[in-house]
Amino acid sequence: MKMRLLGLVLVVSCLLTSAALAKGYGTAGCGIGAMIWGDQPGMIQVLAATFNGTSASQTFGISSGTSNCANTAGGTASAKAFIETNREALAKDIARGSGETIESLSTLAGCKDASQVGTTLQKDFQKIYPTVNTKDDTVVQAILDTLKTSTPLECKKLS
Fold it and tell me: What is the pTM of this model?
């Protein structure tokens, strides 16, 4: 009963609070979880990311331009913002060669096949993340270079 009530409160607060739509998001990225918990620092971002992942709200939000997922038209700028915002989750998905962040990035970049994007990025993992302390702009550029130069991926929205 308590869980149902908590779930209902969370859903209603998202639907009725316009401030939630204006909030920024933290390391969890965008999605309903990010709308609920915003950019609060700390472990709450893990909860927000878990909620986004289990509800698939981030993928839907990016594809549809809802759930506080801005700049979803695709292209290089959108892909860059997505990579920067979702760096940690993307690193995990690239390491395993699949996942929600790879699917979302593939959509933003206009790539033909997300599973092929995952396989290609996984092969280039050491190039993309040479060290734990690799700077964001280096990671972004390595991912974009891989997507742009790998002909079979056909990432049509990247310039």
Answer: 0.58
